[in-house]
Amino acid sequence: MHRGHSTTVQFLLNATNANTATISQAYAEGIIQTYNAGLQSMGIHPSFKQVAASEISRRGQVQLMPAFLYNPGLIDSWFIATGVFGLLLIMNSSLVASAAMVRERETGTMEQLLMSPASTSEIIIAKIVPLFTLLCIMMLMCVATLKIAFHIPFHGSLPYVLFGGMLCILSGISLGTVIATFSKSAQQAQLTAFFINPPLSSLSGALNPVEAMPRWMQPFTILNPIHHFATIVRGGMLKGSGIVALWPNFLALSIFTIVLVSLSVWRFRKQLS
Q1: Helix axes 225-234, 158-181, angle to 10 degrees
Q2: Of 125, 186, 231, 268, which has fewest CB within 10 angstroms of its CB?
Q3: Residue 206 class from Cβ within 10 Å (0-12 exposed, 13-18 middle, 19+ buried)?
Q4: Among 123, 132, 72, which Cα is nearest to 97's?
Q5: ∠ Cα 196 200 201 (to 5°)
Q6: Local structure of 69: helix, strand or coil
Q7: How many CB atoms lie within 10 A of CB 60?
Q8: What is the pLDDT of residue 241?
Q9: pLDDT tens string 190-243
């Protein structure tokens, strides 16, 4: 502008969360307006005409041209739907697993299993595999719903999202098994899950950005499997991220799964003994 030439300034916004992108755009526009107001003190005037003399005025004004990445239409449902995906997997897995385990204890099926020639490992596998298979079918239906009903683009790799969902399902089944081993009835299992699932959903960043939480609560999201799965889904579907960007979340989710599965197997063995 000082040389009398025009130039282009582009402002890129990460619109994975449409609300945050809109707020960021408003801040940027305020900065640009303040800058435009100070151009006159720099000798750059919006309009000036010089007669019978050399041209000394420099006309110029900054115009903001935002480019919204990953969500050009600023559709809020894309952020909410991908977050609810992880909530459904964890909560349904834990509730179904705990209810099935407690129901078998109440009906006396567990004692019949103990009298059978099946080993403890076979009993555990027989309890987990059917639930895991049905919940994987539910996961595929959720992916189809995200694509067909919410029109969420799929820029990344489907196997990454499905593998993360399988780890999330195993974590939920293991969590529900642990709850069932500490519960004497179905009502007690539901009450115990009430004190576990709401904190998991609130501290996951699935329904609201992690940055919107109080600063002292934000580190706790690292210990939440739903948070890591939501990051995998949004990175894999909206951003097209690969394993290079998502490996910390896959590693954390794998650690949670191994720890919860080991804890559930240990508690289930202890219950059978």
Answers
A1: 160
A2: 125
A3: buried
A4: 132
A5: 120
A6: strand
A7: 18
A8: 87
A9: 888 888 888 888 888 888 888 888 888 888 888 889 999 999 999 888 888 888
What was the pLDDT predicted at 242? 85
pLDDT-based confidence at residue 48 (cuts at 50, 70, 90): very low
Question: Is residue 237 a contact partner of residue 153, using CB atoms and an 8 Å limit?
Answer: yes
Phi, psi dihedrals of residue 223, rounded to the nearest 5°: -90, 15
32/62 Cα distance (integer angstroms) = 7
- pLDDT band at residue 22 under the 50/70/90 scheme: confident
First to last CA, the chain: 81
Question: What is the rounded CA–CA span in Å between residue 181 and residue 97?
Answer: 11
CB within 8 A of 134, min separation 6: which ones? none
119 Cβ neighbours under 8 A, 6+ residues apart: none
Tell me which amino acid residue 247 is: W
> CA–CA separation, 273 vs 270, rounded Å?
5
Report the distance separating Cα 133 and Cα 173, nearest Å: 11
Say whether 218 sits in a helix, a strand or coil.
helix
Alpha-carbon gap, residue 253 to 222, rounded angstroms: 10
